[in-house]
Design a protein that fits this description.
heterodimer; A: alpha/beta; four-stranded parallel sheet; 16 helices; B: mainly alpha; 2 domains
């Protein structure tokens, strides 16, 4: 025993914070230093994540924070009612370990980490209430577990088929109920004016994302896929006005980089479309391996990035109910979440991304325990084979182990893509001769 | 230069453009008679000659008239006049396809104005459920059958002359169009025969429904219009088409949300390239509301004339930078 009177025993929360800070700074330092030609205006995002996850600074003091468990809760409605949406999907191994005691062994690390985080009650921005859409089994059941920790949890019905007219009607009603519930809790009325304003604002944020994505269609790509994941990930919790301002600056910098022909990867670095279980900070395990193996992520089909921004709301007559219905349609009909019965839309989206972003291959990550992505692997692989698109399927989790094995697999895939490219070129040259 | 013009068109405010086109065309069709404009009697829109100031006549009138000729005459020399009539109708039709409904038809425009009026009063529009839609959608073919078959039955002598122009007697345009030039004489029930009495009474009911219906439901009557059904039969012949590139479509349903006619295929069908359906009025609101580059496009002679773009979408939906100014 130490005789030092200042000796303090670390509380479990302090220990959790310390471990999470270590996980975070590891990834942030890698992003800051391991890649060539860093982007200056990405500094805002690196600092933001450091402030929130290393120093545990709250961002929304004095605001009503609305926790959401998936992307299907319209943030437009939350902003219109003066709330702040905070997405609770979590990427920390530290929290995953805490949650491991509360969930079955073969469950999804993302849900485990989210539950673990909430069970510790150690949140810098603690949500006042949590809305959980009934998406996958694990998220759906997580709601009652989270409720047992003393949070106010409200289920939002979400259908599992999206083709039928009944499901459209069902989800429209569900979102109408959600907005009435939130409005009575917030003591504020949804008006034509405030809802339209927030739809426009989110719409603008989405248009910024689309402009960022536009740069990645170029032959010379000015931004890393990992940086893009960080930017979109910040939208989970950042103050929206700050986020918009930072992205505007980023776009301005990327424009000059395009003029100066700054490429973040090598000339022959294969271009990758990333799909599957969402990489959520600091679980950038697979994306970091990909981009450290001389490949470049040019597009993604995940709910932590593309799916959050891609589809937009159109309204014909700007009445409240029209806006709510359009919002509901966007969050249901355009969604490519694997929980749906059929998911041809997801396959079409991946194929389209490969074509639009002139990608060489697809990397499909599924978290071990994320049943829906594991199940959909088969149909996606078959479809890619039909289309002649090379694809690598990887199963992983939040643990820091397996690095060597995963790196070997990714490197081999990247190498094969490079070979494919070379062969193509040679064939073209032969055809010319 | 070329891309600049293209950009300007793709970014246009479709709502405003359409409003002015409709207004000008409405004045020409409804009051053109005052300026001695005569566009003939084979127009593919409800330009109703019961209105003395009309600049032309709806093709359904001569069509019913021609088909009611005694069968022997119809199959003889009169066949030529039927064919010439149809060809004249098609000559008009091929230029605009169903855009005749969305931009030219005075009765369609009138309904859009009722819609604008309702919007002003802050009342929300109503829609049909899918089941209602599928049932009601067939009514226009029943009307088309009345337009085509009743005159033929008259020709063979199964129906009497009181059935002449049976559809017109029921048509709300016959009652409403003359009112636009101050003539309310059609707002009566014809007691000359039992048939006429029933048909004109139905006409009065339809006219009433037209006014109330188009106030609560966007383009209420178009849904039942036999002209729309007739258009659809020849739609593929037209030089203008509405096309869809399904591979890029995310089925977000934005186009369906703004569709006055509740055409579901516009959002859900990702395999057809030609996306005009029988209820479509080619108003192009779907193209204006599509947030993807080039998924929906309006083609003239296979050349892309108006196409969905991200930029245009953001402009039209007020999602550009000065969103604060919109409040």
């Amino acid at each position: 025993m130490s005789n030092n009177p200042n000796h303090k025993i670390e509380t479990p929360n302090e220990r959790q914070n310390r471990h999470k800070a270590m996980e975070s700074i590891h990834v942030l330092n890698a992003l800051r230093e391991d890649f060539k030609s860093p982007i200056e205006s990405m500094g805002y995002f690196y600092d933001l994540f450091e402030r929130v996850y290393c120093k545990h600074e709250p961002l929304h003091e004095g605001k009503v924070k609305i926790g959401t468990m998936c992307i299907q809760i319209p943030s437009e409605i939350i902003y219109a009612l003066d709330g702040v949406p905070v997405r609770l999907c979590n990427g920390f191994y530290t929290d995953d370990e805490i949650g491991g005691d509360l969930m079955p062994q073969k469950s999804c690390p993302l849900v485990r980490a989210s539950i673990g985080h909430l069970s510790s009650k150690n949140l810098s921005d603690r949500p006042h209430m949590i809305y959980t859409p009934t998406t996958c089994d694990q998220k759906t059941k997580a709601g009652s577990t989270i409720e047992s920790f003393g949070y106010d949890v409200i289920d939002v019905d979400f259908p599992r088929t999206k083709e039928s007219e009944a499901s459209r009607e069902f989800f429209r009603r569900s979102i109408r109920e959600f907005s009435m519930d939130l409005s009575s809790r917030m003591g504020k009325k949804l008006s034509k004016k405030n809802l339209k304003a927030s739809i426009s604002k989110i719409g603008y944020a989405q248009s910024l994302y689309h402009r960022l994505a536009g740069f990645r269609q170029n032959k010379i790509v000015p931004i890393l896929g990992n940086d893009m994941f960080l930017v979109t990930n910040a939208f989970f919790f950042d103050r929206i006005d700050n986020w918009i301002e930072a992205v505007e600056k980023l776009i301005a910098e990327l424009e000059t980089r395009v003029k100066d022909e700054v490429h973040v990867a090598g000339k022959i670095s294969p271009r990758i479309v990333y799909t599957g279980s969402p990489p959520i900070f600091p679980n950038y395990k697979i994306p970091l391996i990909i981009e450290s193996s001389d490949a470049l992520i040019v597009a993604d089909e995940t709910c932590s990035s593309n799916r959050m921004f891609n589809d937009r709301v159109a309204v014909d007559e700007w009445f409240i109910n029209d806006m709510i219905d359009s919002l509901a349609d966007k969050y249901l009909k355009a969604c490519t979440c694997p929980i749906f019965t059929k998911n041809d839309d997801r396959i079409r989206r991946i194929v389209d991304l490969v074509k639009t972003y002139s990608a060489d291959g697809v990397i499909y990550q599924a978290f071990a325990g994320c049943t829906v992505y594991e199940l959909e692997q088969r149909s996606v692989l078959e479809a890619m084979e039909r289309e002649g698109i090379p694809i690598l399927y990887i199963e992983s989790d939040y643990s820091p182990s397996q690095q060597g094995q995963l790196t070997t697999r990714v490197e081999a895939f990247v190498e094969s893509l490079k070979n494919r490219r070379r062969m193509k070129k040679e064939l073209q040259n032969l055809a010319k001769d | 230069m070329k891309s600049k013009i293209k950009n300007a068109i793709n970014n246009m405010n479709l709502h405003r453009t359409r409003f002015w086109i409709q207004l000008v065309v409405f004045v020409i069709f409804v009051y053109g008679g005052y300026f001695a404009i005569d566009l003939g009697s084979k127009l593919p829109v409800f330009a109703c000659p019961y209105n003395s100031a009309s600049a032309g006549a709806c093709y359904l009138i001569p069509l019913q008239h021609q088909l009611s000729m005694p069968t022997r005459v119809l199959l003889g020399g009169a066949a030529i006049s039927v064919i010439v009539g149809l060809l004249t109708f098609l000559a008009w039709f091929v230029f605009l396809n169903k855009a005749w409904c969305g931009y030219m038809c005075p009765i369609g425009t009138l309904q859009d104005w009722f819609t604008a009026l309702r919007k002003r009063t802050g009342i929300r529009y109503s829609t049909y459920t899918r089941i209602q839609f599928e049932k009601l959608s067939k009514i226009k073919y029943i009307f088309l059958a009345i337009v085509l078959l009743f005159p033929l039955l008259m020709g063979v002598g199964l129906l009497g002359s009181q059935w002449s122009a049976a559809f017109c007697q029921m048509c709300p345009a016959r009652i409403i169009s003359p009112m636009l030039s101050g003539d309310f004489s059609q707002l009566t029930i014809d007691f000359s025969s039992k048939t006429a009495m029933v048909l004109t009474a139905i006409g009065i009911v339809f006219a009433g429904l037209f006014v109330i219906g188009s106030f609560v439901k966007k383009r209420f009557f178009c849904f039942f219009c036999p002209m729309s059904a007739l258009h659809y039969i020849f739609s593929d012949l037209s030089v203008v088409q509405l096309k869809k590139n399904g591979s890029k479509c995310t089925r977000c349903g934005d186009c369906y949300a703004v569709c006055d006619m509740q055409v579901k295929d516009i959002a859900d069908d990702v395999t057809s390239t030609n996306i005009i359906r029988d209820d479509c009025i080619l108003c192009l609101k779907c193209v204006a509301a599509c947030p993807e580059d080039g998924v929906l496009h309006f083609d003239i002679l296979k050349l892309n004339a108006f196409s969905s773009t991200k930029e245009g979408f953001e402009k039209r939906m007020g999602m550009e930078k000065p969103y604060e100014g919109q409040r």
